Amino acid sequence: MEGEAKPFAGRVAVVTGAGEGIGQEIARRLALAGAKVVLNDVDPGRAREAARGIEAEGGTCRGLAGDASLPAHAAALVAEAVQGFGGIDLAVANAGFSLASDFFETRPEEFDRVTALNLRGSYFLAQAAARQMRVQGRGGRILLLSSVCGHLAITRMAAYAMTKAGLEMLAKGLVPELSPHQITINAVAPGATLTPRTLETDPAYDRTWGGKVPTGRAASVADIAHAALFLLSPGAGHITGQSLVVDGGWTAVGDAPPS
Fold first, then answer.
1. pTM greater than 0.85 (yes/no)
2. Scanning 41, 59, 74, 198, which has its CA 20 to 30 A from the CA of 207?
3. Which of 36, 164, 172, 212 is the catalytic position?
């Protein structure tokens, strides 16, 4: 992006679950647009390699491995941003766990895992980031990663869908508390998206979803990242408490492939 405008110059971002897929692309595009990024992944190797890749492209990025479901790790990520880059302006709670489970057979430990990462992790990253943003007094942006599963019923996805719908309510519920500090909070809800994880689950994922999505294809990670960067940008300063669905029109049709 040499020679191009850097709309996020001077901003500092934390992105969780960013060792691959959507989170990595959001972190990458923020860094190439001028932000200094603290990138998290539970896997130390992925965190390290993702950060190195962004730095190799000319971005500024630090990788910090750890479990994003733990409030102490959320605090550590914000502390790393403050100590390493002087503050925090953008927080993206992307880390999440997808659970496909028969309701009648779901085990408590499975339920606890998906709620701990998707809900608790996102809630306490938002809290840690907002506390620091409030102290800084210059506002900020918080972004939560929801899903189309929070909008439509899909077989075997009830627990996961509950967490994603909860994140969209969190975005609304925090508006009264964050707005006085000029902090916005929104959510992006991706539809079927080509990532290393979805392709590992189904090598024909794009073909599986291509006939179900009105635009004729699954989303790319870039499609989701573009929406995320808009909501994190200065131009979205009057948008808060909203959820932006990025699904090629699928929720307008709702024709899911077989489970």
1. yes
2. 41
3. 164
